[in-house]
Amino acid sequence: MKKKVLIILRITVAIILIQTLRFKFTAHPDSIYIFEKVGLEPYGRIGIGILELIAGILILIPKTVWIGAMLTLGIMFGAILMHLTKLGIEINNDGGVLFYTAILTFVLAAIILYVYKKRLV
Question: Which residues cross the membrane (predicted)?
């Protein structure tokens, strides 16, 4: 895969992860609603926000891309699982944007990890 495409994928994942932090760290009502519904408010909201920040940074650093991608996969797997079991696809009439963004981020992180798999060994 071309180097520019990989950089774009990494930046896209980082932007998705980091842009959601303002909702988590400012205790936005939608964020509080989500984490209350899954029983993780407030510590889960803040903790997952910190993990997303770390993943977003790691995925941008060439030597730690694979760590950031693995961490992103874990976080997004949890988000997708919560949507499918406790939250539902649509939250507060968002049309499923959060759910589909989690799927997109999971797929992009999987592609990134696959490309950087040589660094796992």
Answer: 7-23, 43-61, 66-85, 97-116
* Tens digits of residue pLDDT in 43-95: 999 999 999 999 999 999 999 999 999 999 999 999 999 999 999 999 999 99
- pTM of the model as a whole: 0.94
Q: What secondary structure does DSSP assign to 47-65, as a single string? A: HHHHHHHHHHHHTTSGGGH
3-state helix, strand, coil in the chain (%, to 5): 80, 0, 20
Between the alpha carbon of residue 20 and those of residues 24, 30, 45, 68, the distances in Å are 7, 11, 11, 16
Give the pair of three-digit tokens for residue 105: 């981020």
Q: Are 67 and 110 a contacting pair, CB within 8 Å?
A: no
Give the pLDDT confidence of 95-113 residue by residue, as tens digits. Answer: 999 999 999 999 999 999 9
